[in-house]
TrEMBL record:
Signal peptide stretch: 1-24
Single biological process term from Gene Ontology: positive regulation of B cell proliferation
MF-aspect GO terms: NAD+ nucleosidase activity, cyclic ADP-ribose generating; phosphorus-oxygen lyase activity; transferase activity
GO CC terms of this entry: plasma membrane
Pfam annotation, one family: Rib_hydrolayse
Family note: Belongs to the ADP-ribosyl cyclase family.
InterPro entries tied to this protein: ADP-ribosyl_cyclase
Name under which the protein is recorded: ADP-ribosyl cyclase/cyclic ADP-ribose hydrolase
EC id: 3.2.2.6
Keyword Transmembrane recorded: no
PANTHER family, A to Z: ADP-RIBOSYL CYCLASE (PTHR10912), ADP-RIBOSYL CYCLASE_CYCLIC ADP-RIBOSE HYDROLASE 2 (PTHR10912:SF4)
Keywords assigned by UniProt, alphabetized: Disulfide bond, Hydrolase, NAD, Signal, Transferase
Amino acid sequence: MRPSRVTLDGLLFAMITIINLQRADQWRGPGTTPNLEDIVIGRCYDYIETVNPSVGKKNCTAIWEAFQGAFISKDPCSVFPSDYERYINLTLHDIPMNKSLFWENNKQLVHRLSDRGKRYMALGDTLMGWLADNLHFCGSSSNSGFDYNSCPTSSECESNAQESFWRSASVTYAKHSSGEIQIMLNGSTPGGGFPMPRDSCGENSTARLQSVLSHRGFPYDCYDNYRAVRILQCVDFPGNPECTTNSGSGFTSVWMTMIPVWITIMNNYGNMND
């Protein structure tokens, strides 16, 4: 009987080891960014001192505490937008009129265009967005800290730390936008809610957006291949024929992976609270 007992003990040890390995990597998303506290606080001081001093003095330590307090040591699938309320209040500042820039599926190009708030101020150019941009973060309910091994993706659970953060920040950004609002969409992104080979003003999902704007009484202009954005794209591909001619034709070359659709909204109602 003794050999059987040794076998059972070995089996139990193997089962515990497997379970622990699974728990260490249970989510499909990257784990919390190492040195998260140093990065967030460092970005905070950089923003208020060099990037956008016009926001005035901010308590960067209190901002960090509010940020981590929203999700640290919590079930990573039970973090809600309301958990970031204190963080939002501490980082809030004015968004200059006529400089709000909304976007979808063209992040790098948008930030090149906005130029850290000099031309436009996208969400990632505000203090609340600047601090968390390109970072990963989530807490762990099994210990008093962060999960550095993995974090849940939105497909695994919507109420995760990152999804809820950006929802809260996006709503706040929209509410504090005023004047002429800019929207830049990627007209050639595959998939999505209304999958089409390509989109442009007056067609497919863009037409749906235009219909919503008209119904709500927002006057707007819509431009395909907005010239300022096209010039930025040509910086990366200067030898392409589309960048060396004055042709008004649409992009047909395979190098142009993003067809920019630019919509300007004249917001006559002050802040976008609806």
